[in-house]
Amino acid sequence: MVANDMDQRYQVRSVSRAVEILEALADGGDGLTVTEVAKRVGAAKSAAFSTLQTLEAHGFAASRGEGTARRYRLGLALARLGEHAIGQVSLRDVALPVLRELSTETGMTARVAVPEAGHAVVVGRVNAPGAVRFDLHMGTREPAHCTGVGKAILAELPEDDARAILAAGPLEARTPRTLTDIPAVLADLAEIRRRGYAIDDEEDAEGIFCVGSAVHDHRGECAGAISVTGLKLDLPLWRIHQIGEAVRGYAGQVTDLLSGRV
Question: How far is residue 37 CA from its own chain's centroid?
Answer without folding.
Answer: 32
